Amino acid sequence: MRPAEKTRKNLIKERITVSARTLLLRVNPTGDQNLGKYAYYAFIFSILILFAAVIALTNAYLHYVNVSSYYSYERKILAPFSLTGYEGMFFVVAFAPLPDYLIIPFYGYLSSIGEFNVFAAFFVSLMAMLFEMGIEYAGGRLAGRAILLKALSYFKITENDLEVADKWIRDHGPFSIFVATFIPYFKNVTSIAAGTLKMNAPWFFLSNFAGFAIRFGLLIYIGYSGVFVLTPSFDYRHRLGIAILGVIALLYLTGYLINKANTIISHRAGNSRS
What we know:
By secondary structure, the protein is mostly helical.
């Protein structure tokens, strides 16, 4: 086999063996200046935008969720949630096993039909999440590592999960907490890790406040004003705008992953030559 052909085959093999974990979870595995942390943050947000665009557009044509078909039953179905008031809202957001990206739009929708005040719903939801994050932060700060890991094992959180969160926080500081508020599950792990690392409490809560204020503001808006995307009357102009946004996110994701994979491969090839 000729040397050039052998080198080409080796490079193809290296390209195949770039793991998904390295591409998706490691911010800068090579130390290359082209793989900055802000490009990675944009990568995370692009995933969220693409996911939301796909859900909205597929539902616009397939109508697998159609809130208008349940309109006549809404008072009867939603009555238990309204009767619990803002106190019930606080405990549901803080402790319910359902993800908040389903709960918060739901309370936004209840506000749109007059069951709650939309601004009060936003404030109560935000305080509930800060309360939950505070409990996890205090648990990480006050409990010993061994006791904490034993307790967390019941929630399927492993020591490796905490180590990943530890490194994330060390690398990015308070901004890591802000970014984690947009990532389901990871926000809980980073809150615990922030406690074990004894992160400055004001910075921890300020980062959470900023992140959840943005996230819950968008989710409340989706439930309050954006619920129309779950009806057959979803306007075609909005579909086009969401489609364009989704395509832009997809192009960025593709370009970022290709560039990252090529950078990793080039880095490995350079190390193998030396």
